[in-house]
Amino acid sequence: MKNRITDLRAERDWTQADLAQRISVSRQTIIAIEKGKFDPSLPVAFRIAKVFDLTIEEVFLDEQ
Q1: Does the keyword DNA repair apply (predicted)?
Q2: pLDDT tens, residue by residue, 30-54
Q3: Average pLDDT of the chain to the nearest whole number
Q4: Strand partners, 61
Q5: Which residues pair with 3 in a beta bridge?
Q6: How far is residue 23's CA from residue 44's CA, in Å, rounded to a whole number?
Q7: Cross-strand pairs, 2
Q8: Contact 34, 16 (CB under 8 A)
């Protein structure tokens, strides 16, 4: 699943570690999600969207 996390982090000048800490996951999880190697669980996707003050649909993009 494609996502905008890298760009959203850059807009806020956050590192992967900053985002990981804000949503209570490991930095490795953020790396895997950003690279599209791992799709987050629904609770994690909601936390990511919430921390950016966006909807899930605005963060995660449908590849179809």
Answers
A1: no
A2: 999 999 999 999 999 999 999 999 9
A3: 96
A4: 2
A5: 60
A6: 7
A7: 61
A8: yes
